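User: I'm writing a short methods note and want a consistent example. For HCP-like protein, I'll paste the sequence; you return only the C-alpha cells, no commentary, since I'll be parsing the reply automatically.
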Amino acid sequence: MLQQPQSRPTSFFQDGQPPQSRDPRDFANGEYPQQEQYTRPPRSSLPRPQSVPRTPQHNQYELPPEVDDQRYPQDGDDFYQNTDLPPPRSIGGQPMRTPSPSPTVPAPPILDHSHLHPGNKAALLSHERTLELYRANAKKTQDPDLQFEFAVFMIDASKALPIPELTGGNVMEVEKALAKREDLVREATSLLKRLADRGHPPSQYFLADCYANGIGTTKNRQDFDRAFPLFILAAKHGHPDAAYRAGTCCENGWGCRRDSPKALTFFRKSAASLHPGAMYRLGIAELNGELGLSKRPREGVKWLKRSAEHATAEFPHALHELALLHERGIDNVVFVDYEYAAELLAQAAELGYAPSAYRLGECYEYGKMGCPQDPALSIHYYNIAAQQNHRDACFALTAWYLVGSPGVLPQSDTEAFLWAKKAAEAGLSKAMYAVGYFLEVGIGTEPDMRESTMWYKRASDLGDRRAAQRLKGDPAKPLDHGSVIHRPGEADPNGVAKAGKDKECVIM
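Assistant:
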C-alpha cells in the first residue's frame, strides 16, 4: 500500500505569527525555513473534498510498479486486450509539460463537390443548379482568380443560354430568356469591374475584350472607348495579350487616335513576352514598310520565324506567310523550298487555319509544290477549310461531289448543291452562278426557275459574265444538263470519255 504523505503546509507562518527575518545569505547553501504543518480552520460548514494522495515520484516515462502490475498484465502482448480500462493517472511529482495543441478542425472546402460522389443517384446537374453552386462557392472566397473564373463562366453561360425562336405564342418566354442572359452578363461584368478596380490584370483584359466585342454594352455595340483604357491598364501590369490589343487599337484608331509609334511600342512590349500575334505584326510591318518602318525583309523574316515557333490556333498566320515566302522566295533573304513550304502549310492547317488548308487542298488536287495528286488528302484539307466557312473550299467540295472519287468520296448531286449554296451565301460569284444552274436544271434539288433567276442576277451584279448571258437568254428554255457537266466515264460532245474530274465544266 502506498504511504499517506503528510499534508502540504499551507503557510510558512507559525501560530499566526510571521517568521523572523533572516539574512538572505543563509539561503545560499540551500537552507530554507523549517516547514511545519498548519491546519487552517474551516471557513464553511460544507465539507471540503478529500485531497488526492500523491504517489511517489518516478521517472517521467515509467509507471509505478503497482500501477503497472494492476492495469497492464504481463501475460500477453496484445495491445488491444485492455482497451476498456481507464487511462492511467498522472504521475505525482512529474514536471509540468505544456500540453500539445489540439488538432485544428479543417476548414470546409471552398468548392463543394459532394454532388459528384458516385452512386445510383449520380447524375449531371442542370445548368441552373451548376450556376448556383458556382456562385455559392465563389462567394466563400476572396481569391481574385477564383472570382475571375466564375465571371468567365457566367459570360460563357450567357452565350450558351438557349433562346427559343420567336413565334406568335412564345413572346413572354423569349423575353424571359433574353432577360436571364442580360442578368448573367450584368452580374459578370459587375464582378469583373470590382476585380479590375483592385488591379487584377486578367480581369482588366477580359472586361476590355467584352466591351470590344459588344458584351455588356449598350445595345450590344462595340465600345472601344471603354475597352482601350482597360487594355492599357492590363498592359502596364505585363499582360501580353492586352499589350497586343492596345497596339491594334492604336494602329486602327479604335478608342483613340491613330498613333503608329505608340502601336509599335505596344507591339514590341508584347513581342518581348513572345506573343505570336505581336511578333507576326512586327514581321509584316518590317516586310512591307508599315507603321512608319522602312522595308527590311531580313528583319521581317526573323520576326516571322519567331512567331512561327510559338504559333497557336489563334495566331497561326506566321506559318502561312512563311510558306508563301518559301514558295516564291526573296532575293538574298529566303530561298525557294517547296517541300518546306508544304510542311509549314501542313502545320498551319493542323492548327485549323483555313487558308493554309485550302492551299494544301489545291496542291494535292493539282499536284502543285511537289505534292502528289491525292484525292483523299485534297478532300481532307478542303474539308478542314470548308468547316470554317472558307467559301473557295466549299465550292471545291462541290466539284468533288459532282464527280466523286472511287473509294474516297461517293458521288452526290445533293451534297454538291448544298456546298455550292453555302459558298454562294458566303459571296462567291461563281458559286452563285452554279446554284442558279443547279436550280434551273434540277441537279441535287427540284427545278425552280424563279429562284434560279434570282441567283443569276446576284452573280451578274458581281460581274459574272455567264450569269449575265443566261439572263439574256430564254428563261423558259432550261439548259441541257449534259452540255455543262461531264461525269466520269461519260462521253463529251466529241465522243471522248472523261476519266476524271472535269475542270473545264461551265459551272466551275
